[in-house]
Queue: 2 jobs
Job 1
Amino acid sequence: MTIALHKPAGFVCTRSDPNATDTIYHLLPPKFARLFNVGRLDTQTEGLLLLTSDGDLAQHLTHPRYKVEKEYEVTLDRRWNPELAKKLLDGIFLDGKRARLARVQPFGPTRLRVVLQQGINRQIRRMFYAIGYEVERLVRTRIGALRLGEMPRGSWRALTKMELETLRQSSSARRISKGGVLPTP
């Protein structure tokens, strides 16, 4: 069984935490207590989170060798300087690893869409901080071909067989356009 959850800000991605009152499992019926989350979103990040009992699917979606894209909408504390995109695409060292974004697309003066193919703890927030920005809001909108869409915050739904098959097929076969920067629409 695999479900999609629209995680609201303020919830932690764990079954229990003595320092947190709200976990993602408080949003779900008890019958899903044995599902485990595929990757994590930090407490203040909201958006698409998958929970599954399928270990192979979880491995495929989270291991960097598969390069499954995760897309986020980022709201910054001030106007975006497009000249800084190259730094994010080339990479910034976090925890001794090169963290990079696969794509950066502005869609407003302080809003961007970014795509990751790796996952380092709080990567997007830390990368923007390293170039002088604070992330005010962060929402994961897509994993592979699966989109959050209009799902209300705090709600969940089971994935269809077709969605599961599409997720399993998500891989490095999807290539990023050269340079990774998309123009403002």
Job 2
Amino acid sequence: MPSDATTDAKDSTAFLPTMRELARTYQAFANYSDTHIRELGLTSPQFDVIATLGNTDGMSMKKLAEATLVTKGTLTGIVDRLEKKGFVRRVVPPENRRSFTIVLTPEGETLFQSTFPQHIAYLQPRFEQLTPTELKKLQQLLKKLRSSFEGASPS
């Protein structure tokens, strides 16, 4: 019969197969998604910014960083490149001249209207392999796992 120490050691690493599968799933998703995004002429972070700004009146850099998967340090460069391509512009609101809002230009809105539905249609068949009940449960479990990391201080 195993000792309590052996049982405790096994129990403390019981999450490792799940962690490994989560990482592999994310890598497979990212590779699959990124391939299509590159075919659309964008990088994944550029697509993330365009998709986040779509159907909005724009966002501050802070809100855009919070809403995307892009770090604040990387976001400025991405916005700069999208601005050079004519897809976004910085607007200084009259009520706060010390800040600016990032908005899609008409060209950026056209890009959003064409690429976002294409990319969703590209991803949809993969997610349709799960039932609606499975998708809902997966979403709940992922939210629960994410919340256990948010706000937790690193040891």
